[in-house]
Amino acid sequence: MTADPILRPSPISTTVDFDVDGIQHGHLRLPWSRDDSAWGSVMIPVTVVKRGEGPTALLTGANHGDEYEGPIALFDLARTLREEEVTGQVIIVPALNYPAFCAATRTSPIDRGNLNRSFPGRPDGGVTEKIADYVTRSLLPLADVVLDFHSGGRTLDFLPYAAAHQLPDKAQEERCFAAVAAFSAPWSMRMIEIDAVGMFDTIAESAGKVFVTTELGGGGTATARSAGIAKRGAANLLKHAGILAGEPQTGRTRWLDMPSADCFGFSEEEGLAEFCKDLGEPVAKGEVVARIHSIGRTGQAPYEHRAALDGLLAARHFPGLVKAGDCLAVIATVEDPF
C-alpha cells in the first residue's frame, strides 16, 4: 500500500539555507532524467537575503514563462538588495516555472504543465507538479507576505494593475488590499478568477498569507514603464511589510472591481479581431467592444462582441487572430472615477 503523496518528501533540494543570515544566491535543484542528461536537473535560480528576526516575503516571477515584468524586477532585486537593508527575510525566485521561462512559453515544454493551475502539486508528479509541491510545502510556510508577478503573456494585454481577491476572512482580505494599495500600481483591482482551482493564489490565501498578484501589461514582452512599475511595486511592498525601511513611494492608483463573471467576454467565433475600444476606455453595457471578421470568405458580416456591463476595458486579447473560446475582453467597473 502506497503512502499518501503529500507525505512524501519533495525531490527538490536547495543550495541555500533559509535559516542563515546573509545573502545567498543558489538554486532549487529538481532531478530531471532525460535523453541528453540521464542524471540531469532543472536548476531554478533563488536568492535569499536574511537579517535577524522579522517578517518573510516570498517574491516570485515567471509562474507563466512568457510574462517578463516579474523576472526583470526580481533578477534586478536579487542583484541589488543588501543584507543591511533587510529586517527579516526576502526569498526571491525570479523564474518559478524555469523550464517555461527558458522556452518563452506559458506552460512547461517538459510536461506542458501550467504551473498556476497545478497547486498544491505532487512530489511524485510531473516536473510542474513537483515545483508546485515544493512551493506549497517548503516555501509558502516560511512566508508572511507573497507577491506573485503576472502579466498577459503572448495572448493578453492588461492595464497595469496589482490585485487581491475577495476572501471569506475579511481581516485577511483587508490586509491583502492594504498591500495592493502599498504596491501602488497605476490601477488596483478587486479581482475574481474564471477558475481559481489549482492557482498559487488560492493555496496562499487558504494558508492565511497576505497575497498580492499583478497584471502589468502583456503581448509577450515588457516595456520600460511596466518593468518600472514592477520594480517600484516590489520595493513598496517590502517597505509596507516592514522588511525594508521607509515608507512606500505611492502615487495615485485607481481602484477597479470585477463584480461578476459578466466581466469576462469570450469570442464565439474565430477570425480577425478588430477592437473598437482601447485599454482604459469607457464601455457601456451593450456597446460593441470588438468585431471578429471571417478570414475564410469575403463579404460576410463580422461577429460583434458586446459588453455585458458598464465599465472600462481592462484587458484584451493580444494577437490579431482569435479562436472561438478565447478570452476576448475583460470589463472592469471603476470604484473611484476622476
Question: How would you describe this structure to a colleague?
Answer:
This protein has 338 residues and is of the alpha+beta class. Helix content is 20%, strand content 29%. It has two domains: 5-256, Zn peptidases (Aminopeptidase, 3-Layer(aba) Sandwich), CATH 3.40.630.10; 261-334, Beta Barrel (OB fold (Dihydrolipoamide Acetyltransferase, E2P)), CATH 2.40.50. It has helices spanning 69-80, 98-103, 127-139, 170-183, 200-206, 224-240; strands at residues 13-14, 22-31, 41-51, 56-60, 88-93, 145-148, 156-158, 161-165, 187-191, 210-215, 254-257, 264-266, 271-275, 282-283, 288-293, 303-306, 311-317, 321-322, 327-334. It has a 15-stranded mixed sheet that branches. The protein has a four-stranded antiparallel sheet with strand order 16-15-13-18, with no helix packed on it. Helix 1 (69-80) packs across helix 6 (224-240) and helix 4 (170-183) crosses helix 6.
Fold blueprint:
Blueprint: E1 13-14, E2 22-31, E3 41-51, E4 56-60, H1 69-80, E5 88-93, H2 98-103, H3 127-139, E6 145-148, E7 156-158, E8 161-165, H4 170-183, E9 187-191, H5 200-206, E10 210-215, H6 224-240, E11 254-257, E12 264-266, E13 271-275, E14 282-283, E15 288-293, E16 303-306, E17 311-317, E18 321-322, E19 327-334
Parallel strand pairs: 4-5, 4-6, 6-10, 8-9, 9-11
Antiparallel strand pairs: 1-2, 2-3, 3-5, 7-17, 8-10, 11-19, 12-19, 13-15, 13-18, 14-17, 15-16, 17-19
